[in-house]
Protein: MFS transporter
Organism: Hymenobacter cyanobacteriorum
Amino acid sequence: MQASHPTKNTVLTAAVIVAALGYFVDIYDLILFSIVRVASLKELGVVSKEALKTQGEYLISMQMGGMLLGGILWGILGDKKGRLSVLFGSILLYSLANLANGFVQTLDQYAWLRLIAGIGLAGELGAGITLVSESLPQEKRGYGTMIVATVGVSGALLGYWVGHAWGWRNAYFVGGGLGLALLLLRVSVFESGMFQKAQAATHVSRGNFLSLFTNPARLGRYLRCLLIGVPLWFVVGILITFAPEFGEALGVQPGPAPLDAGLAVFWCYFGLVFGDFASGALSQVLRSRNRALQLFLAFCALMVGVYLFGLHGVSQTVFYAACFVIGISVGFWALFVTVAAEQFGTNLRATVATTAPNFARGSVVALVPAFRWAEAHLGGRLLGAAALGGLTLLVAFWAVSTLPESFHKDLDYVEE
């Protein structure tokens, strides 16, 4: 397949457009289960409040487990077989799983399909960011990944609207149909020239995941890349997912309806749209990925403090507004993945760019019990969350500050 060549005149290449639309559908499906969880489980026969919670945790664990497995699988394939094979293979897999999700009749069927969907969802972002980073000139690749993220996270807004307006089964059908429609654009996208060059070098080992752990300097870079993304999932996985519980602890004023976690997720992701645009643009203006990330981490720390200690007795409207602003503050997701991709050579780039976001997402598995422990031992829900959030933010700030700056880095090289 013909290689894609950097263009000096435009950022909106076919690779950028397809990666952005693919991530749009990816986020639509990723967030859809959180939106339709209660309605879908009730229709399948789960009715008690406790069962809704435990079965929901079981299903989301299956999905996250699939994403952890898929992150490794697609990352290795991206470096061995090419960025395009992963980009479209992952879209195909999660689209088919989405369609099948609309037909489920039992919890076991639902769980296994969430596992399969999770495997598919794991591949799209890393492959897309890698392809875009390698296909654009270095002075424009930040704008390309900014577009991918900004368009992509807005998929959560569509997921919220479709899930509530059309019902949970139709919402899954829509997600599957959108993904399959994307495959029609495959003919317009070409493989990365850098990958083809590395592929032609027969002496170079590609997609060797274990090699990330055999070299201390390489392992250090990799672990620091992973740590940068953890605060985002502290915010989304703890503060926003448990918004009703935090609202109760803060004494948020009653409204016409109880505080809704789905609506908190909607406003947070709406903020993420603006945050991803702003962080990507800021990294270009400052000509520094690291300084942009440091500023956003500081902004995030400020908003975590406001969320936990500045919203006592506010109205629901003010509370949801805070969810929107905290969403802006964690809008460095694609910038984080871009930095991870830029830190490594062509023969390991897809592996890192695909595993890093999925391992960061998977940190929720450790963050939830850590939060429960902190809540029980450090003075309650608000102080426990503050301690855990402060720790993740400090570690992420250290990780960014000790990584080499990658804005001007030439990506056309391989890891020896």
